[in-house]
Amino acid sequence: MSDRLSPDVVAKVARLARLDLTPDELDRATGQLSDMLDHFADIDALDLSDVEPLNSPYPLVNVLRDDDEQPTLDRDEVMASAPKSEDGRFWVPPVLGGDS
Amino acid sequence: MSEYPTALQIADGVRSGDLKAVDIVEQHLATIAETDDEIRAFNYVMADEARRRAAAVDATVAAGGDPGPMAGVPVALKDNMCTRGVPTTCSSKILDGWIPPYDATVVQRLADAGAVFVGKTNLDEFAMGSSTENSAFGPTRNPLDTSRVPGGSSGGSAAAVAAGYAPVSLGSDTGGSIRQPAALCGVVGVKPTYGRVSRLGLIAFGSSLDQIGPFTHTVADAALTLQTICGHDPGDSTSIPEPTPDYSSVLDRGVDGLRIGRIADLPDGADPDVVARTDEAFAALEAAGATIVDVEVPAFTYGLTAYYLIAPAEASSNLARFDGVRYGLRVDGADVEEMMRNTRTAGFGDEVKRRILLGTYALSAGYYDAYYGKALKIRRLMADDFARAYQQCDVLLSPSSPSVAFPFGSKTADPFAMYLCDTYTIPANLTGDPAMSVPFGTGADDLPVGVQIIAPALGESVMLQVAAELERSAS
After folding, report:
1. How far is residue A30's CA from residue A20's CA, in Å, rounded to a whole number?
2. Which end of chain A is more exposed for a tag (fewer CB within 10 A), N or C?
3. What are the C-alpha distances in Å from B14 to residues B21, B51, B217, B288?
4. Which residues pair with B173 in a beta bridge?
């Protein structure tokens, strides 16, 4: 296995991505991601300092539509697919402080 | 060429009153009922919806109206395209129970053209994979050999056409997810120019790479479907505001005088049978009057690396919205963050988690410049290389997939082995250029081989023109 990645780094990335990994999954993910980064080492030696990054194949420019009212999605239809809702609003557990 | 009626034949018959859309849809639903227990192309068969829509098409004809250029044509939709009132899952547990409140633009356009939707097709979860083995609902089998994969990620859509469930299906292509399964199932598959087809209502994977396109048996049916789904959509900010040319008008032009580019430094790894068919495709085009030109696209070699950094990075961002709050699965937790972690951990499969981790890593502080930033620069090199190549040739030709359809399980142990399936298809996603796969003979075990045609941006017409010539040569 490559030493490009440590389990600590992968655990941190998993926390950022809101994913829980069991110890076994963390080991496996560390190995697989390290292997991938080894494959990706073909770009390490490239000197790209003068190259402009290309974010999208289509030149993106802001397009503003006229600021007039347009139909929106049906609220009841949208809320019907929510896991939990109340009075037309999404219901979530406490955002701060758990049960407190 | 095919034992099944084409979309053009069906639409002509239905519009003239010689065929009834309700009969056509019953025939296709019967075929689905007969064999899809084994093939499993569909996550959801829209039998009632299809019958209702077909009856409406017939009623329009009976009243002296024209239901449109795709009148009565059965169409299967990849299950990552929103269909109002019909479950849309991305073959993921995390969208369990979600019913979209709106139709994707492509769905709306096909409906307006008289098409009849027969169902939602299986895919690798969130379109991440090259074999449809990553579906949370189990794999789709290749109708030509059920011990083998149909390719992916649009494996269900490719199999639906190959199995005769519909003459037309839609897939999405982020790194080859239309062209590779088309090659493995022996059908035509087109990825249009980035921005040619609206992505509104396509559940995002890699937003700067994703593009919707058709699977069909014939190049003419692909042209018909493109004509219907292409065009500007104010609801997609990356939609190109250019008029759609008449694609069907170019199919009989031949290739006399066209220059076909052969990429000199193509990464190797294609099986000998695939290489042989590709060489024969060059020879067939040359015999039909085209000139073969050797071109260099050095950045091609780095496409795989650039793609597998950019696509997971975009995916990690796009898939952040699946957090248990607004739609689909929720697994409860003491606070909102624990609920989100529990939901995502239970709802996403292994490959999706792998790509979210890879993408989050590539974007995270300290690694951004070494990975994601560098990948975007390679993307620029790729676009520049292709632009130079197009100064010497009208289109490029290459294999679509390195191999014919492979057995189940043969690439699942090593994620990177699966990623190599996309070697030849990825560059057109990075550049945004249109590309398609056309069946061209068979290889090992009598399985189909597809060749890929890549054209400059908005060059669908010349691409289809070359494809039509290859189709004539192959038959």
Report:
1. 14
2. C
3. 6, 15, 19, 35
4. B211
User: How does the average pLDDT of chain A come out, rounded?
Assistant: 89
Please tell me whether residue A63 adopts helix, strand or coil conformation. Answer: coil
DSSP per-residue letters across B81-129? B-BTTB---TT-GGGTT---SS--HHHHHHHHTT-EEEEEE--SGGG--
Q: Class for domain A1-46, per CATH?
A: mainly alpha
Residue in B91, B92, B131, B153 annotated catalytic: B153
Q: Which residue is associated with the tokens 């062209």? A: B179
Mutate to test the interface with B, among A43, A44, A46 (most CBs of B within 10 A): A43
Pick from A18, A20, A21, A26 the residue to mutate for testing the B interface (most B CBs within 10 Å): A18
How confident is the model over B243-264, as pLDDT tens digits?
999 999 999 999 999 999 999 9
Give the closest residue to B151 by CA, choosing from B118, B120, B173.
B173
Cβ–Cβ contact B341 with A under 8 A: yes
At residue B271, what are phi and psi to the nearest 5 degrees? Answer: -65, 155
Q: Which domains, ranges and CATH numbers included, belong to chain B?
A: 7-229 (3.90.1300.10)
Is the CB of B332 inside 8 Å of chain A's CB atoms?
yes
Q: Tell me if residue B475 falls in helix, strand or coil.
A: coil
Largest CA distance in chain A: 58
Residues B442, B474: Cα–Cα separation, whole Å: 10
Q: Taking a C-beta distance cutoff of 8 angstroms, is the pair B119, B45 a contact?
A: yes
3 state DSSP class of B405: coil
Average pLDDT over residues B451-469: 98
Which has the closest alpha carbon to A39: B153, B302, B378? Answer: B302
pLDDT at B460 over 70: yes
Task: Examine the residue annotation and report whether B411 is marked as an active-site residue of this protein.
Answer: no
Per the listing, tokens 């989100």 go with B340
At A98, the pLDDT band (50, 70, 90 cuts) reads: low
Count the Cβ atoms, other than its own, within 10 Å of residue B173: 29
Measure CA of the first residue to CA of the last residue in chain A; give whole Å.
45
Cα B348 to Cα B332: distance, rounded to the nearest angstrom: 16
Tokens of B389: 């190549």
Phi, psi of B211 (to 5 degrees): -155, 140
Is residue B153 reached through a cis peptide bond, with omega within 30 degrees of 0 on the bond before it? yes
Residue B149: both structure tokens together? 């994969």
Q: Which of B177, B198, B316, B401 is catalytic?
A: B177
Predicted confidence band at A95 (pLDDT cuts at 50, 70, 90)? Answer: confident
Give residue limits of the domains in chain A. Answer: 1-46
Residues 6 or more apart whose CB falls under 8 angstroms from that of B294 comprise B261, B262, B264
